[in-house]
Specification:
0% of the residues lie in helices and 50% in strands. It is mostly beta strands and 123 residues long.
């Protein structure tokens, strides 16, 4: 049984930073497409970052230079470092994965395994 569990969300002021984590159980990150999506109230879930094989990455234009995704295979953990946060970054953030290659930008329909989400609030 595959399970993804996010953590690290919280409330910060604009300009602050947060690091989200996503720990997988029953799942190995290597050679998988991993992605972070977010969903604000009343809006569609959108992809903000994706990473394949630890070093091939994608970031949405509004996140380039502010967000960095990385993986620690030993801990089976995916990270999203978020700097210079803005109020428009406020959303529920989800970790997701699938066994194929990554499409950039990531498409929600490609992913079948999702975490429960972690809330990020920027004021």
């Amino acid at each position: 049984h595959v399970q993804l569990v996010e953590s690290g969300g919280g409330s910060v002021q604009a300009g602050g930073s947060l690091r989200l984590s996503c720990v997988a159980s029953g799942y190995v990150y290597k050679n998988k497409c991993m992605a972070w999506f977010r969903q604000a109230p009343g809006k569609e879930r959108e992809g903000v970052a994706a990473i394949y094989s630890g070093d091939i990455t994608y970031y949405a234009d509004s996140e380039k230079g502010r967000f960095t995704s990385s993986q620690d295979y030993a801990k089976n953990t995916l990270y999203l470092q978020m700097n210079s946060l803005k109020p428009e970054d406020t959303a529920m953030y989800y970790c997701t994965a699938h066994g194929g290659g990554c499409r950039f930008p990531p498409l929600k329909a490609d992913f079948g395994v999702w975490g429960q989400g972690t809330q990020v609030t920027v004021s």
